[in-house]
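Researcher: Hi, I'm a grad student and pretty new to this. My advisor asked me to get structures for two proteins we've been looking at. I'm not sure of the right format, so I'll just paste the first sequence and hope you can take it from there.
Model: That works fine. Here's the first sequence with its structure tokens right after it:
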Amino acid sequence: VNFHFESKEKLLIATLQHMYDEYSAHWRAALQKAGDDPARQLQLLVWADFDRSICNKRKLAAWLAFWGEAKSRPTYQALSSSRDNYYQQVFIDLCAKLKESGGYTYEPQVIALALSGMLEGLWLRLMMGTEDTTRETALQAANAFLAAAFPRHYP
């Protein structure tokens, strides 16, 4: 490990970069698959978070470990913030499009933040192994949120 990465810290940074690259490719593929319909795009982005290739105990544990360390490690923060900000902006933009087409009164930034917070919270519950939370029930909760927030788009 030290021969290739020079230090444990560089190994961890490379691991975090790999995880972000994998996650980014996954959600971008979901977005592309959805076509031009913002409601379908948002739905497939949400569904992508619960795909087995992304949403499994090993990967969730790694994400939560990195998130826990990010506050005290500027390198993790720098790597995470630009990617997280871009991903969040995609959510905001989609919520803005749904607001416009559906005549909703919410602020896109607020509803996008609520959605992101819920998705991250569901990942935490899945990682913690609570009995009432499975990938399937987490996806049901996310779908219920979409239906409640955007009833004209997800009846």
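Researcher: Oh nice, that was easy. Here's the second one.
Model: And its structure:
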Amino acid sequence: MEQPSVGQRYSSPEHDDYILETRGLTKRFGSFTANDRLDLRIKYGEIHAILGENGAGKSTLMNMLSGLLHPDEGELLFKGKQVNFDSPRQAMEIGIGMVHQHFMLIPALTVAENVVLGLKEGRSPWFHFRRACAEIKKISDAYGLDVDPAKRVSELSVGQQQRVEIVKTLYRGAEFIIMDEPTAVLTPPEVKDLFVVLRSLKEQGKTIVFISHKLQEVEAVCDQVTVLRAGQWEGSMAMKETTPAELARLMVGREVTALKHSPYTNSQRCLLEVQDLSVVRSQVPVLSDIKLTVQEGEIVGIAGVDGNGQRELSEALMGLAELSSGEVKLDGRPVQRLHPRYMTEQGVGYIPEDRHKEGLMLPMSIGENLIAKQYKSPIFSKFGMLRKGAIRKTAEQAVQEFDIRTPSSEHAAGQLSGGNQQKVILARELMLNPKLLIAMQPTRGMDVGAAEYVHKRLLAERDRGVGILLISTELEEVMSLSDRIAVLFKGRIVDMVSREEATRERIGRSMAGMID
């Protein structure tokens, strides 16, 4: 396969500064318009952010640029020529590659085998595998990717696997590389390393599209930014000419106010105490010797890269997973038998990780979901029959109080957006006036506006004395809300710091297992 020379600079044609343009690009799914007449221009050799909330149309746009989807209307120009793709392979053949958020690698194969997988040359009897390894090493060295062609992917960290995906696009001759939420699964040190790689790619003539909803990262690494909202173009500008506050306003359509975190007043009342908690699944330890406390009116954040035991911890505390050893105390009293109903009766609220599978009954109405934990109450049932009037009134009050965007309080939960579904769960748990709330990924998949609302509600609950265990893979969320932060790594708490002691560097190193 003929490759451009490593480190070759791609200069733009004299008549055009733009490597890619879209003109009136539109994509519909039935009656829903995901992208509405988008005009986008991206210059040669820049890092260009596509910024927007969940549902803004970022993924649909990138899928059209990379050949996964075909536009219903509009034009796509690459290097000044109109192009139409029927597949990602066609996009790749002219120099457009994409690194997906969820990597497409086979763990049992080596780096080199993954890189050449699917290429015609890899199936040829004249294919020289050593030559391919040498080319991969050459690309790796040129861009500071530090990838060993002979290593199995299963032996690599998440950050190293991402670099393999970048090498795959470069090996195929990509000049225009789309990065879909590239920092979502990385530790802070890995994010820094990625930014070094992106700047190296830019310096050697590559064009990078950086899809994200994280304003601080866009500010740190991007030259230009385009904001999408509800499938429409809201603006494009140089990063140095704007601010995160202005970008947030464009994303949400209104001003986003800063969180007010009042100082924590130490309480003598310990609502949750966990001692030496361990969980084993299929003979593999997933949690080991967890020690943890949550005081009245305190938010304790659990930071960590996804997959380090967060889900198992929340399930163990709610009685959804069997403990191998350890003890849980509520208000100083040992819990003899962990069970979801018992924990609810003891004043423990729970926001589960997966709102679809665990948090809601999607075909049922908002009201029915809101009373799911108290349907036997005389307020909502009489002689075994549900009191629909009381349920409707409760639902209408919750819709108003929690700003649930819905045409009707009798709407099915499955017809709501992700952010509004999460508000229904939050409303249900807070309506029970819990003394302790376990919040697992409370803003996952939510846009800036909805996440802002959830954060303010959590702080309000904390200020009225509720203890909150906040488990999140969003480091900014943990650091902005928590009074103390514990770091979970490979099923163990490896660090515990106060809000005053916490820095991104310290937490990031702990998340990566770099313990001093």
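Researcher: Is there anything I should tell my advisor about the second?
Model: You could mention this: The chain is about 30% helix and 25% strand.
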